[in-house]
UniProtKB/TrEMBL annotation, chain A:
Entries under PANTHER family matching the protein: NADH-QUINONE OXIDOREDUCTASE SUBUNIT C_D, NADH-UBIQUINONE OXIDOREDUCTASE 49 KDA SUBUNIT
Entry EC number(s): 7.1.1.-
UniProt organism field: Marinobacter aromaticivorans
Protein name: NADH-quinone oxidoreductase subunit C/D
NCBIfam families hit by this protein: NuoC_fam, NuoD, PRK06075.1, PRK11742.1
Gene3D superfamilies attached to this UniProt entry: Cytochrome-c3 Hydrogenase, chain B, NADH:ubiquinone oxidoreductase, 30kDa subunit
PROSITE patterns: COMPLEX1_49K
Record key words, sorted: Cell membrane, Membrane, Multifunctional enzyme, NAD, Oxidoreductase, Quinone, Translocase, Transport, Ubiquinone
Domain NADH:ubiquinone oxidoreductase 30kDa subunit: 46-174
UniProtKB/TrEMBL annotation, chain B:
Identification of the protein by name: NADH-quinone oxidoreductase subunit B
Organism (species): Marinobacter aromaticivorans
Membrane topology category: Peripheral membrane protein
HAMAP family found in the cross-reference section: NDH1_NuoB
Name of the gene encoding the protein in the UniProt record: nuoB
Cofactor(s) required for function per UniProt: [4Fe-4S] cluster
C-alpha cells in the first residue's frame, strides 16, 4: 500500500491570469471570497459566500475574456468527508464550473451550505443552461434554488421519495424491498408522468386556435432511446416543446461511491455507450492525476489509437441513424458494415466489442497483440474510399440538402450560452477542440486538422462528422507508423493491477499485490478533474478522493445533457420534421444524458 | 415434454393484480390427452398446430423498442453483416399493435417500467418477450436504486440472452431458441376448438445442455496474438 499524503498538492502550471483573477475578485468582493482551494483540477477554485454568488458569476461572465459557458453545476454531500483541512464548514457544497472559450481557461466556484438551510438563489438569469443542472441538484441532493421557474425532479420518477446522491440514501436496489408492480401502481406511475401544460407556463389555446399536445417518446423510433419530448403544436408548427429525461438514469455517480477506483472503469464504458474505451480515458487520466502517475509514450499512443477507432465507429452510427431519421433507409446498412470492420479490429486488440473497459489506472489491460498493425492498417486503407462515397451519395444528395440546410441553426454565442460542445459547437465555426487547445494523452504529437462548419445547422453537423472521421483515420495512420516502444504499465506503486512479476519477489510484495487487487489502491485525498474531447462533446470526470479505496464523489459531466436542454429554443417556430432532423443531428445517446 | 399453461381469462387485469398477470401452471402435453380421446382428431390437431407454429416462427415481427447499449447490438443484428432477414424477423414495427415480439434490449429503469408494461399490454397475442443482456436478465452490474433487478419482475420472459451487451450473434441465437420454443407451443386453433389455454413448452436449459462440451475445454487461446 502506498502512504497517503494528507498534504494537498497545488496545481502546477503557473498561469499569471489566475493571480490577476484572484486579485480582481478579492478587490471587488473582499471577504465574500472565503478562500482559494488548492486542488489538482487544473483551475482556480474559489469558495464564495452565498450572498455574493450571483454577483461573482455576473462579473466572471463580463470579464474581458469572459467565462461564456456554465460548463457544469452539481453538488457534494460533505457530511461524511473527513480530510478537508482549512476549508469552510459545510454539509452540502454546490459547485459551479465555468469555461472560457476565448481565454481557454476554467474557474470553479463553491458555495457551502448548512443542512438546516439548503437553499441558493438560482443563476438562470446569468447562465440560462443552469435550469436543468439546478433541477438535477434538487432531485439528487434536495437543495432548493429560489427563483427557479419549475424546480421539479428531472432524473428520478416524479413519485420518488428521497434524494439519491445524499450519503444517507440507499445505493443498491437489493438494500430495499424487491421491485414489484401492480395494476394500480402502474396506473399511478403513468398518471404521474402525464404532461400538464400549466406547469410549464404553456397555454392550451391562443385567440384563434386550440393547441395540440403531442407526446413523442419515451419510446419513439427517432428519439434514439428512452427520451421523451412533449410538443405544443399548431398544425405542423412547433410552438414550444418540453424535453423530459431521466428514463435512462443508471446512477453511475452513486455507483462510483461504492466501487473501488479500479472496478469503476467498466461503468465508464457504459456512459456514452457507443464511445467504448474513449469513456475510460477521462476517468483514468483524472485518477492518474490524483495518484501522480506518469505513463509511457506507448500507453499514451495506444490510448489515442483506441479512442480514435471508437470515435469512428460512433460517428458511423451517427451517420447511419442521422440519415435514417431523414428517411433514407440504406445508409444505416453501409455504416454498420463499416462499424463491423472497426469492431473486428477492436475485438482483436481488446477482446470485446462495445465495452472493452480496456484502459487501466497507469496503463492498459495488456499490450497490443502481435499483428495489430496489419489489422489497423487494413481498416485505415478501407475507410477513406467509403467516406468519399458517403459524401457523394448522402451529403451531395439534393433531398438531404433541402431537408437539412439552415434547419435548427444556431450561432456560436447561442451554443456557448447553452453549454454546447464538441462537433455541434464546431459546426457553428468555433474552433474549440480540446485535442488541440488542451492536448492530453499526447495529442500534441499528432498531425491533424479540426474541421469547422459555417452555419451551425443540421447539414453542417452531419458533414463535419464525416470530415472528423477522415482526421481520425489520419491519426490512426500515424499510430501505425510511429507506435513507440515501451511498457504497457507505468512504473508506479499505484498502477492497478500491479505488474504480476513484482508480486513474486517475497512475501511483502505478495501481500501488497493481494491488497491492491482485493481492496484496490488507496488514492491520496485531493480533487482532480479531466476533460476530454469525447465523441459527442466535452466529457469530464471530477473526482473527489477522501483518501480511501473508493471515490468520495465522482461527478460525470456529459456533453449530451446540455445538448438536449437547448432543443426548445431552437425548435420554436419550426416544423415537426425539422425537429426529427435536429434530433438526428445532435448525436446523443440517453446514457450520456441521464448517466 | 412438460408445458407451462397460462389461461386466457386469467390474463385479464383485476384491480390490485400483480404483474406478471396470469396464473402459470406446469402441465403435461395436452396433445397426449387428445390422442387418448380420438386418434384422428389428435393427429389432425398435431398437423395443424405444427403448421401454424411453423408459419408463426418464420415470420416474427419485432417491435422497434430499445433501452440502452444492447439496442445497438440488436440493431447490428438487423443490418447487412448479420442480416436477421435470414430468420424471417426483419420486419421491424414501430407500433406494438403490429409486433409479435418485444426485445427488452437494455436496462429496465424504474421510471421506464410502467411504460414497458403498457407497451407490452398493447401488443396482441400471440406475443413473446426476449430479455437481452445482463441488465434485462437480472439487473446485471447495475444493482442500483433506479434499476429494476430483471425485467421478469413484471413481464413473462421467453428467452434470456446473456452478455453485456450480447454479441449480435448471441441475439440471433436467442431468436432461434425462441423459434424452437414457438414450434413446440400449443395455442387454441380457434375460439371454438379445444381448451382455450396457451401452452408454452419448457425448453431445456442451454447451460445444462452444453455443460459437458464446455467443461472439456482445457486450453484457452492466449491474448497476445490476433
Amino acid at each position: 500500500m502506498s502512504v497517503v499524503n494528507p498534504e494537498l498538492r497545488a496545481t502546477d502550471p503557473p498561469d499569471h491570469r489566475v493571480g490577476l483573477l484572484t486579485e480582481r475578485l478579492r478587490d471587488q468582493f473582499g471577504d465574500q471570497i472565503l478562500c482559494e482551494q488548492a486542488t489538482l483540477t487544473g483551475m482556480p477554485v474559489f469558495w464564495v459566500s452565498r450572498r455574493a454568488l450571483v454577483e461573482v458569476l455576473t462579473v466572471l461572465r463580463q470579464l474581458p475574456e469572459p467565462f461564456e459557458m456554465l460548463f457544469d453545476l452539481s453538488a457534494i454531500d460533505e457530511r461524511l468527508r473527513s480530510r478537508r483541512h482549512g476549508l469552510p464548514e459545510t454539509d452540502f457544497t454546490v459547485f459551479y464550473q465555468l469555461l472560457s472559450v476565448s481565454g481557454n481557461r476554467d474557474v470553479m466556484l463553491k458555495v457551502a451550505l448548512s443542512e438546516r438551510d439548503l437553499s441558493l438563489p438560482t443563476v438562470i438569469p446569468v447562465y440560462r443552461n443552469a435550469n436543468w443542472y439546478e433541477r438535477e441538484v434538487w432531485d439528487m441532493f434536495g437543495i432548493r434554488f429560489e427563483g427557479h421557474p419549475n424546480l421539479s425532479r428531472i432524473l428520478m420518477p416524479p413519485t420518488w421519495k428521497g434524494h439519491p446522491l445524499r450519503k444517507d440514501h440507499h445505493a443498491r436496489a437489493t438494500e430495499v424491498d424487491p421491485y414489484s408492480m401492480t395494476v394500480e401502481s402502474q396506473e399511478t406511475e403513468q398518471q404521474a408522468l402525464q404532461f400538464r401544460p400549466e406547469d410549464w407556463g404553456m397555454q392550451r389555446q391562443s385567440d384563434d386556435t386550440e393547441f395540440m399536445f403531442l407526446n413523442l417518446g419515451p419510446n419513439h423510433p427517432s428519439a434514439h432511446g428512452a427520451f421523451r419530448i412533449v410538443l405544443q403544436l399548431d398544425g405542423e408548427e412547433v410552438i414550444d416543446c418540453v424535453p423530459d429525461i431521466g428514463y435512462h438514469h443508471r446512477g453511475a455517480e452513486k455507483m462510483a461511491e461504492r466501487q473501488s477506483w479500479h472496478s469503476f472503469i467498466p461503468y465508464t464504458d457504459r456512459i456514452d455507450y457507443v464511445g467504448g474505451v474513449m469513456n475510460n480515458l477521462p476517468y483514468v487520466l483524472a485518477v492518474e492525476k490524483l495518484a501522480g502517475i506518469k505513463v509511457t509514450a506507448r500507453i499514451q499512443t495506444v490510448r489515442v489509437m483506441m479512442s480514435e477507432l471508437f470515435r469512428i465507429t460512433s460517428h458511423l452510427l451517427f451517420l447511419g441513424t442521422y440519415l435514417q431519421d431523414l428517411g433514407a433507409m440504406s445508409p444505416v446498412f453501409y455504416a454498420f458494415t463499416d462499424r463491423q470492420k472497426g469492431y473486428e479490429v477492436i475485438e482483436a486488440i481488446t477482446g470485446f466489442r462495445m465495452h472493452p473497459a480496456w484502459f487501466r489506472i497507469g496503463g492498459l489491460m495488456q499490450d497490443l497483440p502481435k499483428g495489430w498493425d496489419r489489422l489497423v492498417q487494413g481498416f485505415v486503407d478501407w475507410m477513406p474510399a467509403r467516406l468519399d462515397e458517403y459524401e457523394r451519395a448522402m451529403m451531395d444528395n439534393s433531398l438531404v440538402r433541402d431537408r437539412t440546410k439552415h434547419i435548427a441553426a444556431f450561432d456560436t454565442a447561442n451554443a456557448l450560452a447553452w453549454g454546447v460542445t464538441g462537433p455541434n459547437l464546431r459546426a457553428t465555426g468555433c474552433n474549440f477542440d480540446l485535442r488541440k487547445q488542451r492536448p492530453y494523452s499526447g495529442y500534441e504529437n499528432f498531425d491533424f486538422e479540426v474541421p469547422l462548419g459555417n452555419n451551425g445547422d443540421v447539414f453542417d453537423r452531419g458533414q463535419l462528422r464525416i470530415e472528423e472521421m477522415r482526421q481520425s483515420v489520419k491519426i490512426l495512420q500515424q499510430c501505425v507508423n510511429h507506435m513507440p516502444e515501451g511498457d504497457y504499465k507505468a512504473d508506479h506503486p499505484l498502477t492497478t493491477p500491479p505488474p504480476r512479476e513484482r508480486m513474486l519477489e517475497h512475501i511483502e510484495t505478495l501481500i501488497t499485490h493481494f491488497l491492491q487487487v482485493s481492496w484496490g489502491p488507496v488514492l491520496p485525498a485531493n480533487e482532480s478533474l479531466q476533460m476530454i474531447e469525447a465523441t459527442k462533446g466535452i466529457n469530464s470526470y471530477y473526482l473527489t478522493s477522501d483518501g480511501s479505496t473508493m471515490s468520495y464523489r465522482t461527478r460525470i459531466r456529459t456533453p449530451s445533457f446540455p445538448h438536449l436542454q437547448q432543443i426548445p429554443e431552437l425548435m420554436r417556430g419550426g416544423f415537426v420534421p425539422d425537429l426529427i432532423a435536429h434530433l438526428g443531428s445532435i448525436d446523443f445517446v440517453m446514457a450520456d444524458v441521464d448517466r | 415434454m412438460t408445458y407451462t399453461l397460462t389461461r386466457v381469462e386469467d390474463a385479464l387485469a383485476a384491480e390490485n393484480a400483480r404483474y406478471p398477470l396470469g396464473e402459470r401452471q406446469r402441465v403435461e402435453d395436452p396433445m397426449q390427452q387428445q390422442v387418448h380421446r380420438s386418434v384422428f382428431t389428435g393427429k389432425l390437431e398435431e398437423v395443424l398446430n405444427s403448421t401454424v407454429n411453423w408459419g408463426r416462427k418464420h415470420s416474427l415481427w419485432p417491435y422497434n423498442f430499445g433501452l440502452s447499449c444492447c439496442y445497438v447490438e440488436m440493431t447490428t443484428a438487423f443490418t447487412s453483416p448479420h442480416d436477421i432477414a435470414r430468420f424471417g424477423a426483419e420486419v421491424i414495427r414501430a407500433s406494438p399493435r403490429q409486433a409479435d415480439f418485444m426485445v427488452i434490449a437494455g436496462t429496465c429503469f424504474m421510471k421506464m417500467a410502467p411504460i414497458i408494461q403498457q407497451l407490452y399490454d398493447q401488443m396482441l397475442e400471440p406475443k413473446w418477450v426476449i430479455s437481452m443482456g445482463s441488465c434485462a436478465n437480472s439487473g446485471g452490474m447495475y444493482d442500483i436504486y433506479s434499476v429494476v433487478q430483471g425485467v421478469d419482475k413484471f413481464l413473462p420472459v421467453d428467452v434470456y440472452v446473456a452478455g453485456c451487451p450480447p454479441r449480435p450473434e448471441a441475439f440471433l441465437q436467442g431468436l432461434q431458441l425462441l423459434q424452437d420454443s414457438i414450434q413446440e407451443e400449443r395455442r387454441p386453433l380457434s375460439w371454438v376448438v379445444g381448451d382455450q389455454g396457451v401452452y408454452r413448452a419448457e425448453m431445456p436449459s442451454q447451460r445444462e445442455k452444453h455443460r459437458d462440451r464446455r467443461i472439456q475445454v482445457t486450453e484457452l487461446r492466449t491474448p497476445d496474438g490476433i
